């Protein structure tokens, strides 16, 4: 029975890993080295399956910034290749987290090179550039806040305030290399930075298109149920200001009794399955 369970576990893990990473080979976690290392706050956050919920939350929040949304709408093929964007993002996070310093620097340089060609004008006539430090700062802040919030809400084991601050500080190393000016170094600074973007946020037609796509992406049939649970978990931990702007209703009873417990259970299963896939690949 245990053998059957282990086999199912590995197959689930391989399916999820392929969804996130495509055909890329599994990355071994080095014992030392890289930008961070096994004792870092970054490994505590990024090594947990709650990252999946955090990633969806980050995408939802980012739709509220018109220049960011215009860059995605004008230069991304997310409608025809939704998993490609997810896999590239997962690959970047994986490389900068677990790769050598050289590999991390190469991944960052590639992103900066791509950003050089991402520019245009929003539907409201506002010019944008993907390598603009202010735009990069918004994407960085929303991702760090989302990954950290998801880890604290749905992760396996709680992390304390000191670890949370350390995570924000460690992520600043990647942000600076990407071109972010003066990235936040504590959770308090992160909250302040997000508030500073408030006057720029609004929902437009591009935002609504992206929001519908994030809610109902064209996933393989067997992944739609699990994704719906992860999406519900992401919505349940959106900050109040984002939910109001996105017109996503708050259902406290349903979220407390059903949505969050389901998302917590699913992230545990995903973490269990992914660890089995990693073991079989090593």
Write out key terms for the chains shown.
two-stranded antiparallel ribbon, globular, 2% strand, 13 helices, mainly alpha
Notes on the structure:
The chain has 13 helices and two strands. It is mainly α and 282 residues long. The relative contact order is 0.17. It has helices at 2-21, 41-46, 51-62, 66-75, 82-98, 101-115, 133-154, 161-178, 187-196, 205-215, 221-236, 240-246, 252-281, and strands spanning 119-121, 127-129. Strands 1-2 form a two-stranded antiparallel ribbon. The protein is globular, with a radius of gyration of 18 Å.
SSE map:
Blueprint: H1 2-21, H2 41-46, H3 51-62, H4 66-75, H5 82-98, H6 101-115, E1 119-121, E2 127-129, H7 133-154, H8 161-178, H9 187-196, H10 205-215, H11 221-236, H12 240-246, H13 252-281
Antiparallel strand pairs: 1-2
Helix pairs in contact: 1-13, 3-7, 3-11, 5-6, 7-8, 7-9, 11-13
